Amino acid sequence: MKINIGIIGCGYVGLVTAACFAERGYKVLGVDSDAGKIKTLLSGHLPIYEPGLAELVKRNQSRKRLVFSTDIGQAVRFADVIFIAVGTPLGDNGGADLSQVKRVAREVAKNLSSRYKIIAEKSTVPVGTAEQLKTTIRKYAPARAEFDVISNPEFLQEGRAIKTTLYPDRIVVGLETKRAEGVMRKLYASFKAPILITDLESAELIKHAANSFLAMKISYINAIAQICEKSGADVRKVAYGIGLDKRIGREFLRAGIGYGGFCLPKDVSAFVHIAEKLGCKFDLLKAVQSINRDQRQHFIRKIEKACGSVKHKKIAVLGLSFKPDTDDIRESPAFDIIRGLIRKGAIVAAYDPKAINNMKKILPAGKVHYVGNSYQAASGADCLAIITEWDEFKNLDLKRIKRIMKTPLVVDGRNMFDPQMMEKQGFNYLGIGFK
Ligand code: UGA
Known about the structure:
- By secondary structure, this protein is an alpha/beta fold.
- It folds into 2 domains: 5-198, NAD(P)-binding Rossmann-like Domain (Rossmann fold); 214-430, Rossmann fold (3-Layer(aba) Sandwich), CATH 3.40.50.
- The protein contains 18 helices and 14 strands.
- The protein has helices at residues 12-23, 35-42, 53-62, 72-78, 99-110, 129-140, 161-166, 178-187, 200-231, 235-243, 264-277, 283-307, 333-343, 356-362, 374-378, 391-394, 398-404, 419-424; strands spanning 4-8, 27-31, 66-69, 81-84, 117-121, 147-151, 171-174, 195-198, 314-318, 347-351, 369-370, 383-386, 409-412, 428-430.
- A 6-stranded parallel sheet has the order 3-2-1-4-5-6, sandwiched between helices.
- Strand 7 (171-174), helix 8 and strand 8 (195-198) form a beta-alpha-beta unit.
- It is globular and about 75 Å long.
- Bound molecules: uridine-5'-diphosphate-glucuronic acid (UGA).
- Uridine-5'-diphosphate-glucuronic acid (UGA) binds at residues 124, 154-158, 211, 214, 218, 252-254, 256, 258-261, 263-264, 322-323.
């Protein structure tokens, strides 16, 4: 049997998943209710920036393996496995808002037939959602419909989305029948990653537990960074020293201005909510959140202290996206930091290689002076604040930067540069987690 794939939701996760399955040789139909997005995709353009994705989508569109539509019914009729990859943003109560997932489940259900289908949760959802989806789908599907609901969380990282999808550390599939297991094992056979088959609830929980653990590592090292600053230790050395212990591991121990993005902040918050609903306290994760919030304020305080006051001072902000190699500004530390600086009377000139247009939507031009390159931002500045560690910034002409700044002060929220080198170049250089 040849497996055809339907992906409902063409955001970061859906689009990357669609393109990667097509690249593996499957026929994929991607659906999104946003007609504008589908029009953009059909005209050969991408609604987002992700390295390598435009080429992958284009290649598979021309091979006729990847097509797009706004019609969920078409995807259900076409596909053997239907992935639900719509957004699960934070609701008002701090838990995940599942309205899009539920709407899609009803639509999928109405289009089911006696041909067996797998409906797979790709979006990050609270534990217990697959069970709810089964009930909803049974309610709206024709009596003869044959289907399984499974959980298949994604672990892709923005900026490295293709690599982390095509070559994941593991593939997690929560399911209940041998039939579904057979299809999913076949679907992922060419991915050469360990496949972990679990029950539905464990698969759902693995996703929230993994993202929260990553957030915890970041907040842990950021808390250590504050201790390092007070004690004279260097957090980069401490992170290296603890990371060499295999039980701890070296990844996700980069101190800085904390985690952002659409996933970690929302998933930590949702996980606290899930735990509390189940009657379990999760104070550990609340501390993770509070350290993360404070890290942004700590950065502002550092700039303020170094400048005396930021009132009427020009602060050059380099980087707006929540991490490099993406235009995604959702929950980016840049937003809170720029807003905080403006409130204190600073004049902010900001540059980012890809994310300016997105940031303009939430911080309009006028409040922030968006400029076309790092040098325009730095010109006449009292302080250069580094928010995102784009490669482009690593290769800056530092002599030129020093010449054009009013005061050669660099406050680096990502510890991009070697402090000794920066001081040699004549900068007053402040990073996170060392003196
Ligand atoms: C995260 C997870 O890493 C993925 O495994 C998961 O699939 C994804 O969420 C998701 O749920 O969709 P992503 O949000 O793309 O991926 O970004 P990360 O690479 O995890 O970075 C998150 C934030 O943490 C960024 O703001 C980054 O700058 C920050 N970070 C990361 C640090 O401050 N220090 C570190 O050592 C690592």
